[in-house]
Amino acid sequence: MTQNKKLQAWVDEIAALCKPDSIHWVTGTEEEKQSLLDLTEKQGMAIKLNQEKRPGCYLFRSDASDVARVEGRTFIASVSAEDAGPTNNWIDPVELKKTMKDLYEGCMEGRTMYVIPFSMGPVGSPISKIGVEITDSAYVVVNMDIMTRTGTKVLEQLGADGEFIPCLHSVGAPLKPGEADSSWPCAPMDKKYISHFPETKEIWSFGSGYGGNALLGKKCFALRIASVMAREEGWLAEHMLILKLTDPKGNVKHICGAFPSACGKTNLAMLVPTIPGWKVETVGDDIAWMKFGADGRLHAINPEAGFFGVAPGTSMESNPNAMLSAQKNTIFTNCALTDDGDIWWEDIGYDAPSHLIDWTGKDWTPESGVEAAHKNARFTAPASQCPVIAPDWEDPNGVAVDAILVGGRRKTTIPLVHESFDWNHGIFMGSIMGSEITAAVISDKVGQVRRDPFAMLPFIGYHVCDYLQHWLDIGTKTTADKLPKIFYVNWFRKSDDGKWLWPGYGENSRVLKWVCERCDGAGEAVKTPIGYLPTPNAIDRAGLDGVTDADMETLLKVDNSEWLNEAVSIREHYNNYGHKLPKELMKQLDELEARLKA
Ligand code: OXD
Ligand code: MN
Fold first, then answer.
1. What is the pLDDT of residues 111-142, one digit of tens each?
2. pLDDT, tens digit, 9 for 90 and up, residues 52-96
3. If 0-12 CB within 10 Å is exposed, 13-18 middle and 19+ buried, where does residue 219 land?
4. I need a surface site. Which of 196, 228, 327, 523 has the fewest CB within 10 A?
5. Please, how many CA atoms are within 13 Å of residue 344, restricted to the half-sphere of its CB?
6. Contact at 8 Å (CB) between 566 and 574?
7. Which of the listed residues 210, 213, 219 should we mutate to test ligand 1's pocket, taking the one with most ligand atoms within 8 A of CB?
8. The pTM is what?
9. What pLDDT digit, counting tens, does each position of 277-312 carry?
10. What are the structural domains of the chain?
C-alpha cells in the first residue's frame, strides 16, 4: 500500500487488466526474500544448494526457449519511427499497446502480482531514480532484491507525489484453476515483447522471465529509458563499469569503461593488479550514470546493487572477486548441479565431477558431449559481498570520473591503448569501437567488425545519431580540463601466427597505470595519426614475463595501411546511420584519413 495516488491508481489499473489472484507489495526485508525463496523451492522452481558450501544460495533452471535477452523482440515504441533510429526495432506505440493489452488481459490469473518499489542508485541520492516493477514472477522479485534497492524505504522516499518509472512485467502464462505450474513459466517467442515507450517513460515486458527481459531495472530502465531521460536532462546513462584505482602513494583515480559483451568487463571491474602497491576497487560492473557535480566534473554512480554475471569462464584465476562475491546469498540460473548440491560450469577452474545434472535437468557426465551449464548461465550476487567493493561505492554524490575507456575485441589494427586528442576525438573513438564477430555467434559475418558505439547498440532508447550528438554536447557543458580523458584499449591483439600478444586479466593494471599517469599530465606518449600512444617503455613491464620488446612493438603498432582500410569500414558504418550522423564525426573521420595519408 502507498500514499502515492499515482502509484495506487496504476497498481489498481494493472490488477484490473491482469486479474491476479492476489497482490503482494514487496517490503524488501530478508524474511520476505527468504519466504519467497522457500515458496519457489516448494513449487519446484528452485533448488536449495548445499548450505554449508553455499549458504543462502539457490539454483533455477529456465525453459530452453528463455535463456537470454531477446533483441529481436525488444522495441523502442517512440511516437515517430524516425526517433527510434536505424538500430532499434520500432512499432507504433498505439498499435503495440493494443497488441500488448490483449496479451496482458487476464495474464496473471492463478498467480500473485508483486509490486516492487525499487531505487536505481542509493536511496535518496540526487542521481538516483525510482521505478516500480509489477511482476507475476517470484524469481524476478528475489533477483530484483539483489540487483536493486527495494521495498518500504523506497516507497517512503517516493512519498505522496514523487515520480516513478512504471515497469510492467508478466511471464505471460496464466494458470487455470487446478492447473499445475511449470518450473519456468513463459510465453512462446512470437508472444514475447520487451517494449519501451520513451515519450511516456513506460516499460512493458511480456512473455520472458530471463535476465534483462524481466529484471526491468537493469537494461530497460537504467539504460534504454534512462538514456532518454539523460539526454533530456543533460547527463549520461551508460553501459560502463566503474573502478577505483589507488597508486602506491595513495593517489586515487576513477575510471569508467565501455566494452561490448564477452570483452571481460566484470573481470576488469574487479581486477587484481599485478603491479606492486596498486589497488583496484569496484564501484560497478555494468552500468554508470554520470552527472555534472557542482565542481563541473562528471560524477558517476552505479545504479545497481548486485552483479548479474555470466558464470561460464568465471574462475578463481580469471576473477577471484566475482567467485567470492557469489559464495553466499546468490541466485544461480542455468548452471549445472553437482551431486553434493553445489554448482559447476565450464571453465570454473576445476574439472567437472563424474556426474552432474546439467542446466536442462538431465544427467550429465564428461562423456555427454554437451555443455553442462548454459553459455549464458548467470549468478546474481549482492555487490556488497564483493571483497574489493570500494568503500565509497554507495556515495550518493557519485565518484568524480578521471578517465573513460572504450574498447572491443580486435586481433589486428587497434593498438593495446591509445589516448584521444580531445573530447570530440574521444567520442569518435566511442562511435567506432566494436569487436570482430567470432565463431561463437552463428553468423555469415565471422571476422567482420561489428561496431557497437559505447557498447550501447542494444541499449540506446532513441536515435543512435542523436545519442552520439548528446555525447558531443556534454563536452560543451564544462571546461576541457574537467572532462574525463578518453582512451581506446584492445587487450585482444594477436601476432601474425595467431598468438595473443597481451596476457590480459591482472596485467591490464599496467595499462591502467599509464592511463593514470596521462591523467596527471605525465606518462610518456607519442603523437600518431590515430591519437597519443605510449612510447615503447611507457607501459611498466617490470616482472612481466612473456611480453617481449618485439611483442610490445606489435601491440603499439599503428599501421597506416591497416588504418586506411579501417577508415573505409568506418565510413560504411557511418553511412548506415544515415543523414543524422553528427557532422563533427564525419569531420573526425576525414581528418583521420588525411593524417594517415600525410
Ligand atoms: C549484460 C549484457 O547482461 O550486457 O550485462 O547483456
Ligand atoms: Mn551489460
1. 999 999 999 999 999 999 999 999 999 999 99
2. 999 999 999 999 999 999 999 999 999 999 999 999 999 999 999
3. buried
4. 327
5. 22
6. no
7. 219
8. 0.97
9. 999 999 999 999 999 999 999 999 999 999 999 999
10. 5-45+73-234 (3.40.449.10), 239-304+398-597 (3.90.228.20), 306-385 (2.170.8.10)
CA atoms within 13 A on the CB side of 157: 23
| CB 449 within 8 Å of CB 562 | no
Distance 376 CA to ligand 1 centre (A): 10
Residue range 320-352, pLDDT digits in tens:
999 999 999 999 999 999 999 999 999 999 999
Closest-CA residue, ligand 1 atom 4, reads 261
pLDDT (average), residues 561-585: 96
Helices 138-147 and 30-42 pack at an angle, to 10 degrees, of 140
Q: List the residue whose alpha carbon is closest to atom 2 of ligand 1.
A: 261
Q: What's residue 438's pLDDT?
A: 66
pLDDT at res. 436 = 86
Name which of 287, 285, 154, 161 is nearest 226 in CA terms: 287
Closest by CA to 554, choosing from 517, 500, 593, is 500
Among candidate residues 57, 167, 220, 263, the one labeled active-site is 263
Ligand nearest to the CA of 333: 1
Please state, in angstroms and rounded to a whole number, the distance separating the CA atoms of residues 477 and 488.
Answer: 23
Residue 271: HSE in the Cβ half-sphere, 13 Å Cα cutoff: 28
Residue 464 pLDDT > 90: yes
Q: What is the DSSP letter of 387?
A: T
**Residue 551: half-sphere exposure toward Cβ, Cα within 13 Å:** 18
* Strand duo 434-436 + 449-451: pairing: antiparallel
Q: Tell which wins on pLDDT, 448 or 155.
A: 155
CB atoms within 10 A of CB 251: 11
Q: What count of residues does the chain have? A: 598
Ligand 1 site, residue 261, Cβ cutoff 6 A: yes
- Which distant-in-sequence residues (6+ apart) come within 8 Å of 590 by Cβ? none
DSSP string, 250-318: --EEEEEEE--TTS-HHHHHT----STT-EEEEEESS-EEEEE-TTSSEEEE---SEEEEE-TT--TTT
Residues 6+ apart with CB under 8 A from 395: 122, 301
User: Which residue lies with its CA nearest to atom 6 of ligand 1?
Assistant: 261
* pLDDT for res 440: 52
**Arithmetic mean of pLDDT, 207-218:** 97
Asked if residue 357 lies in contact with residue 337, where contact means CB atoms within 8 angstroms, the answer is yes
